[in-house]
Amino acid sequence: MAVQNTFVTLGYSLNHMALSEAIVLKIPVFLLGMSDFFHFLHIQSLVSKSIVGWVELLLATHVVFYCAWEFFKREWSSIIRKNE
């Protein structure tokens, strides 16, 4: 309870929708990135490595910029205010 009150007083909020979306999108990125080690998936026989790379880029970009947008906003405000 004390930890929860600390987060509320500091202004941190957890966007559950963005978190669940990030988790759902990280699973295919992980499987595609580790497809060399998961031979039972046979991803290389379905599509080329360049297409896999582009799909990873699209999924990871969405996770970074949409799901972590609050982090980037706070980071930018800290840089502007010169806080550590």
Summarize the structure.
The chain has 84 residues and is mainly α. It is 75% helix and 0% strand.
Outline the structure in words.
It is elongated and about 50 Å long. It has 84 residues and is mainly α. Helix 2 packs antiparallel against helix 4. The protein has helices at 2-10, 16-33, 43-46, 49-67, 69-81. 1% of the residues are buried.
List key phrases describing it.
84 residues; mainly alpha; disordered N terminus; elongated; 75% helix
Explain the layout of strands and helices.
Elements: H1 2-10, H2 16-33, H3 43-46, H4 49-67, H5 69-81
Helix pairs in contact: 2-4
Radius of gyration of CA atoms, rounded to a whole number? 18 Å
Assign a percent range to the helix content: over 70%
Q: What is the overall shape?
A: elongated
> What ranges have pLDDT less than 50 throughout 5 or more consecutive residues?
3-12
Q: What class, by secondary structure content?
A: mainly alpha
Percentage of residues in strands: under 5%
Biggest sheet architecture: none
The count of helical stretches stands at 5
Mean pLDDT, to the nearest integer, reads 77
* Beta-strand segment tally: 0
SSE string, helix = H, strand = E?
HHHHH
* Gap from first CA to last CA: 27 Å
